[in-house]
Amino acid sequence: MTFQIVSLPGDGIGPEIMSGTLDVLASLSKKYHFEYHVTEHLMGGCAIEQTGTPLPDETLAACQHADAVLLAAIGGPQWQDPNNRPEHGLLQLRKSLGLFANLRPTRVSDHTVNLSPLKAEIVASTNLIIVRELTSGIYFGTPSHWDTDVAVDTLTYTTHEIERIVHEAFKLAQQRHKKLTSVDKENVLSSSKLWRQTVNRIATQYPDVTVEHLLVDACSMHLLKRPSDFDVIVTENLFGDILSDEASMLPGSLGLSPSASFSTSGPALYEPIHGSAPDIAGRNKANPFGMLLSLAMCLRMSAQREDMATWIENIVDQLIAQKITTPDLGGQSTTSEIFEILQSRIKEVS
Ligand code: NAD
Ligand code: IPM
Ligand code: MN
Fold first, then answer.
1. Closest ligand 2 atom to Cα of 238
2. Is the CB of 268 under 6 A from ligand 2?
3. Distances in Å between the alpha carbon of 264 and those of 46, 88, 101, 320?
4. Domains (ranges, CATH) in the chain?
5. pLDDT for res 125
6. Which of 140, 229, 273, 287 could be bridged to 326 by S-S, CB 3.0 to 4.6 A?
């Protein structure tokens, strides 16, 4: 059956990293006999420009009917209307597709260990995954409003919302190194007290997994001090957002980090964790690896094509080893040069 992909290139560097990634998919699919169909849709600032809204109905409908959604990045300084921002479209898309479980892996390989801003002996062999709750918490609580005198955000978690993400994290830990770090702010927040109590209750169902609790401020420190001690980190929406950008720097660049978001059923969404990088947009400097590694996650987890996923992950490793990278990783290649090199490597696939 033909695998149906919706592509959302978005704004800023989004279209630059998406187009080359789809070209890679096209060439690689011929070699690997993978049948797919991709349709492109508007989302983010570009959708506001053309339709007045960041997530047009037809884009949402296309995503709902797809097997997987690939998103590059949205947002930018030109879209600051507090009532109509590109970011609202992304949050609405996540909520509408029920994408409560967001996986954000970070790995430091032999080739990235010296690209890290931290000492090699500290980051060596780091291999962790942040399981971020994606459809609740302070991002979605009501009331939420502001005026010149006061601003209100509401942080709500139900037991059910905590349970389902924590179960996903325990199951993942069982398949990995059987260590789960739960991150909260239990010393201050009510939602975190419920979070920690729920983790402890569920832990009895996974006796083979070792559980560690960290307060979020301490965790941000431990991520720099002992990153290789972590295996699976589970946390709520806002903490996961912040900690995953921090973790992305362990191998040297935010531009390297992919992600995958899942619901209980229906299409998954794959996107790099970085944004539209307005400071480098249009300059052929964007690191395409986070987007390519997001495609690899899509091929593995939604299309069951481990072979193609592994090929992409290996080639990214090889290019980094050969110092064929964009400037954020210390190299001198442009985005389009990297895509050209990838096309020539695909030609060598037998
Ligand atoms: P950002 O992630 O866009 O950029 C932060 C820094 O990292 C910038 O210096 C940027 O140049 C660099 N960077 C990011 N991705 C890179 C890449 N692939 N290659 C090289 N360098 C890269 O964060 P920001 O500047 O705080 O936000 C810009 C816009 O992006 C905002 O509108 C924000 O809301 C949006 N955003 C969108 C997403 C998304 O689409 N999923 C994620 C984060 C931020
Ligand atoms: C991310 C982004 C989004 C988030 C923004 C753009 C809404 O920062 O995907 O990490 O905060 O979730
Ligand atoms: Mn973020």
1. 11
2. no
3. 30, 22, 9, 35
4. 1-99+263-350 (3.40.718.10), 101-256 (3.40.718.10)
5. 96
6. 287
